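Q: I'm writing a short methods note and want an example of a predicted protein-small molecule complex. Could you take the sequence and the SMILES for adenosine-5'-triphosphate and return the bound structure as tokens? Please keep the output block clean; save any remarks for afterwards.
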Amino acid sequence: MQDFLANLLMYYNQIAMAVRGGIELYNIHPWLAALVLVVLALVVFGSLFLWLVRCRVASTKFFVLDHRSGWLWWWPWGRNADQNPLGDVVLPAGKIQQVRDVVEARTSREFGGRLERLGATLESRERGLIIDGVPGTGKTLLVNAVAKDLRAAIVFASGGDLITKYQGSGPESVKELFRVAKDHQPCIIFVDEIDGLPTRGSEYANGGHDEQRQTLLQFFVQMDKIGSERIVVVGATNAYGSMDGALRRSGRLGERVTLPLPDFGLRVRLLQVHTAAVPLDADVDFRRIAAATRGKSGADLRRLVSSAVVRAARRDAAAVGMADFVASLGLSSPPAAAAEIVHPAAW
Ligand SMILES: Nc1ncnc2c1ncn2[C@@H]1O[C@H](COP(=O)(O)OP(=O)(O)OP(=O)(O)O)[C@@H](O)[C@H]1O
Ligand SMILES: [Mg+2]
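A: Understood, no commentary inside the block.
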């Protein structure tokens, strides 16, 4: 301890001497030197304080992924290396554009300006959309990629998050969700499993679910309050029909984009995308695999690829072979040549 104090004193003396030396060397008035030191200290502690305050403001139960460019974007090394985030999303033509259009109309200044010149005010644009489709068709993936592409932040919530059994906390959660989005403009509010929000069905009539009713109403209120904010709400569901009609009406989540299961051509593309980093044997024929995986989703195909990779690793092979895919499919022999005949335009 004594050593430590003695060392500290020594360093302090050295610094003081250096400062004094500097003052003498550069002929600076000691008061000026003191002023500079005080200002420096203020700047350092001030930025630390601001940083802490920001951290506190940012702390919320909702997960935020910030793809916004920030000032570093102008710096060549600060730019996102992933130049085309939508490149790995395999969907029928038009589906990606449909989602991108609604989101861009609200979040992009440039595109918004173009719309404005054509007479579409920000208030008049769709405030959100719903993406529906069976599990594993790429809903979450698509929203993420669009956010990245448009350099918008994305706040994740799920219908279930917003519904709580505690009195008053549901509407509070909804308010917080929109507040967080406001702090991160341009921002996508992504409500996964949005069918988890209650409907104004029987519960309304018997009045037993007042808390849930208040939550839904608060959601409407907050959505209708979106005016000039660059916020868009994207809901994902696989039960479109069971959602409240008022939620689906135009002006709120009016647009609906349905993602289908991939057809033959898209399955081939999906296999290519998911094996982009996988060394493959020459005998691997994606057309045969695609023919044998009718009705499978993008997520199924990704799992198929990783299970084939695991098998190849077990064999300690240098590349993944057709046999690995065949075994992962649970087949005893390679699937027949592409049974579904496609015309070349399909892929
Ligand atoms: N269209 C697609 N293009 C590329 N990859 C896909 C596609 N669909 C699914 N995948 C793969 O499957 C994974 C899971 O997909 P995702 O989580 O987006 O499905 P989801 O539709 O949101 O499902 P859920 O309804 O269960 O939430 C993705 O991370 C991706 O690797
Ligand atoms: Mg999902």
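A: Remarks, as requested: Residues 264-346 form a domain with the Helicase, Ruva Protein; domain 3 fold (CATH 1.10.8.60). Residues 340-347 have pLDDT under 50 and may be disordered.
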